Structure formats: structure tokens, C-alpha cells
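Everyone, study these two lines:
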Amino acid sequence: MISTDSPFARVCAAPVLGVGLGIDVFDTRPDFRKLIKHHRAGFDFLEVYTRGNWADVDKPFAQIPRDVPRTYHHEGLDPVGPALCPRPPIDGCMKNQKLLAPPWTVEELAVRHIDGRYTDFFFPAILTPESLRATVANVRQLHALLPGPLLPENAPYEFVVGDVHLCEWMTQLSHQADCGLVLDLGHLWSYQLCMGHGDDPLHGVEKLDLSRVIEVHLAGARVEKYHGGRIYRDLHGAGPIPAPSLDLLRELLPRMENLKAVTIEVEDATEDRAVAQCAQVRQVVQQHRPQWLLGKA
């Protein structure tokens, strides 16, 4: 039985946000101010990212009108580490949650900091029972400290360590930490590529409790050949959304009963390209789950 005050119950109670854009408030490409001023009809909400910076956000946050729905994408909690992260990233997340008042906060299931130093590489979750136990403990502790619920997101994989299928690992995390999930479809495909299932992006998806998926991510990417295999590279707004990501969206949309948001991460795109990708995704949604855009499950 799900507690009515659990992190999962809280995100399930949030309204459907629709199809939105993931932006970096420090980027000029796209400039979120121009998106709001000139393209407001082209997106339903903004997912706000700050590069792990929580010291210089007051001014850009104040430039997001209150009538623009927003979610928040944090960075720095490193939830898949062996122990809880240091206090500063937690305090930064608390600050930004209070400023933005988002219904939830997204955090990658990866480590981005080693000995306090930022690494421009995702060290994604090790897919073992031991790593799962540590991550569950970390997410539970974070929920005890933060004012708003977290949605862990599957990170991109360039190599996989561990024998537990990613979808099973995420299901166990969501149940044991009583939380929702962000399912990044490109990152899911990156895992399948590493495991030799790149031509079958749905491989093992039956192991994922899709009722726990609150938000879906899509982004531009390219796939590179590497030693006889293929590796997924995130480009966000600087590239097209791969066909397998859109295929996954078409297949899974009708099956995610608690879905609240579909986010296209568009950093490095022009404003026109950002809203064009949003329109591309909205068309898929309208074809495969049109009633969802009206706020109906």
C-alpha cells in the first residue's frame, strides 16, 4: 500500500504538465527569455537546469514568470555513490526548490563529482544489488532532508558494470525508496547499445514498473561506432532526436499511467529548433495518447 504522504504519492498528485522544454538558465542558446517572450505557445512548461550552480540563480529564476509551469533538474546529489553526498549540494537543491516551487526535482542516477571535483562524464549506476542498496539509502535520506520529492533519472551509459538489468534495478529503486522515476528514452537506448540490444530498444522493458514513470526525457543525439559496437552520445538541442527514442515513446506512452510530463532537452538549440522539436514530440503524443494532453490519464 502506498502512503498518501510518500514521495511517490506526492508526484502522482501533481497535475499533468504536458510537453515541455529542458533549458539551462545560463545558456544563450536557446535563451529561455526569448522562448517565453516569442514562443510561449510552443511549449507547456520549462524544466530548469542550472549546471549544478545554486549561487547565481536568483536573477534568472526571477525572469521566469509565475504563470510558466516549471520543474527543476538538479545536479550534484550523486545518489548512486556509496554514501550520501556532502552537504553543499543538498543545501543548493533545497534553495532552488524553494525558489522555483517545482512539483518535483530530477536528479541523474550517476556520480558527477569525485573528491569534490566535477567530472564532465557520467559515472552511471553500477547495476548490482549492493549499489541498489546504497542508492535506496541515499534517496531515502535525501527525501528526509529536501522539501520536495526527487525523481531519479536513468543516466547515459557508455559501458555497463553489473548483472542486474537496468529496468529491474530502476523498478527496485522506485519501490524500495517509494519514489517516482524519470525515464530518459535516449539513455535507455544507450544501455541497450552497450548490452548488444541496440536494434531492440524495448529489450527487458517488461522489467520496468511503468506506473512509476512520472516524466519522460528525450534529446538530440548521435551514435558512434566503437570497436565493433555503438555508443550513444547526448547532443541535446544540437542534434536530431534519434528514431529509436521516438519509437520507444510511441510504444510506451499508452502504458505509463502516472505520466505527468514529457521533456525535450534542448540545450544548444536555437529557439526555433527547440520549439520545432517540441512540436515533433507533441505530434507523437497526439497520435498515441491524445487524451493525456487534456490532463486525462
